[in-house]
Every structure is written in C-alpha cells, then in structure tokens.
Amino acid sequence: MRDQAPLLVLGSLLLMTSCVPDPGGGGTDSGNAFRAGLTVSGEGSTISGARGVQEVTSAHLLLEKIEFKTCADAQGDDDEIDYEGPFDVDLLAGLQLSEIELGIDAICGLELETEVTGTGDLAGLTVLVEGISTAGVPFRVQSAMEFEVEVEGDEVLGDALNAFALLFDVDLWFADADPDLGTVVGGEILISDTSNPTLLAAFEADLLTSARLALEGAL
C-alpha cells in the first residue's frame, strides 16, 4: 500500500453527465432544509493537446469517500456529510452523484479519500490514464497512490437545491510528466511504480493540486 498524501487545494469548477442513483450518505438534522448534488468530472485541453500529450483517451479515478465539510468541521466538529463509494469516476464522461439533504447553510470545503479497492482495469490501482503522446506513442499511467485531499471554498447555500461541481484539471497532471520522456517498451510508454517511476511521482504530485470546487451557479 502506498503512503497516504494529505493536501489542501483551493478553487472552483463545473460539468455534469452520467448519474449514480444512491450516494449512501445523508445530512445533519439541524438548520435549514438545503439539498445538494455533486458532479465529479475532468477538464482541460489535454484531450486536444497539452505538454507531451496529443490526446487523453481514458482517465479513471477511484474515490472511496467524498465528504462535504461544514464550517463547523473546519473548527474541529466531526459532523460530516458523506458520499460512500467506491466510485470509479470516468473523468472524460463525468459522474453525477445523487442529491443529499444538508442541515446547514454553508459549505467550507470538500474532503476526498482514495483507497485501493478497485476491480477490473482498476484492480490494485486508484488512477488509470491512457492516451497518445505528442510523438504519437501510446502511453498508460497506473497509480496506486492513496490520499486524502481537502478542497476548500466558502460557499453559501442560497438555493433549496445547490448544484456543486468538483473538477480535476487533467492538463495539470502532465505539467511535469511528459510521457515522451519515458522509456518505450513494446511500443508503449508505461508510467508506473516499476516503469518510469520518476514520471509517476511528478504525475501524482500534480494530480493532488488539480481539484477545484464551486457552486455551478457561481461559475
């Protein structure tokens, strides 16, 4: 198991597509009867070209838990509102999570947690990205990094239903991890613990700073 990496990230964001019917979470019982929905997705020009990348054809992130953080949480209160996973998030398609009830009138952030619990292509992994490098070589990034990330952003809940958006900027993932700098084996550039590990470390560091949170109506 990889070491967990805690981090604070600031920001805002957008997008909405495929839907998950039941998040397995809930809200508090006090305060105003606000509701919230959350969309998780990717953004960026990487799909059409970024440093070292001609195209990203697949980008999956495994999220074990997503917690809305109230302002009381930021002051040490343990009251949290959870989406219980695991969620295999296809960042190119987007993932819309169901509405939950919030007994609060402000959100001071979001906490994301990953854990290696995947199956299929994500077995033993938390991140899997595939694409074509600028030189036209297929590449694949495999990461088993487990982490907790707090995405901060003061958001007042002004509507009965508040649509939040959580976006990962895929461009940033390759800001310091040019696939074309990696070794080609069997016609593919594999970036993993055992193949091009220096590129993987750079990729993982930039992934942790790529998340943003906002109310969609404020974008």
**Share of residues in strands:** over 45%
Shape: elongated
Tally of extended strands?
Answer: 14
Q: Which structural class matches the secondary elements?
A: mainly beta
Q: Which stretches are low in confidence, meaning pLDDT under 50 for 5 or more residues running?
A: 3-31
Main sheet properties? 9 strands, mixed
Percentage of residues in helical conformation: under 10%
* SSE succession: EEEEHEEEEEEEHEEHE
Distance between the termini: 38 Å
**Rg, Å, rounded:** 18 Å
Mean pLDDT figure: 79
The number of helical elements comes to 3
Topology:
Elements (H helix, E strand, L loop, with lengths): L4 E6 L7 E2 L14 E10 L9 E17 L1 H4 L5 E11 L4 E8 L3 E8 L13 E7 L4 E6 L3 E10 L4 E9 H4 L10 E2 L2 E4 L5 H11 L3 E5 L4
Parallel strand pairs: 1-10, 2-6, 3-11, 9-13
Antiparallel strand pairs: 3-6, 4-5, 4-7, 4-8, 7-10, 8-9, 11-14, 12-13
Give a description of the structure.
With 219 residues, the protein is mainly β. 9% of the residues lie in helices and 48% in strands. It has three helices and 14 strands. The protein has helices spanning 71-74, 170-173, 197-207, and strands at residues 5-10, 18-19, 34-43, 53-69, 80-90, 95-102, 106-113, 127-133, 138-143, 147-156, 161-169, 184-185, 188-191, 211-215. The strands form two sheets. Strands 1, 4, 5, 7, 8, 9, 10, 12 and 13 form a nine-stranded mixed sheet that branches. A hairpin with a 2-residue loop joins strand 12 and strand 13 (188-191). The termini are far apart.
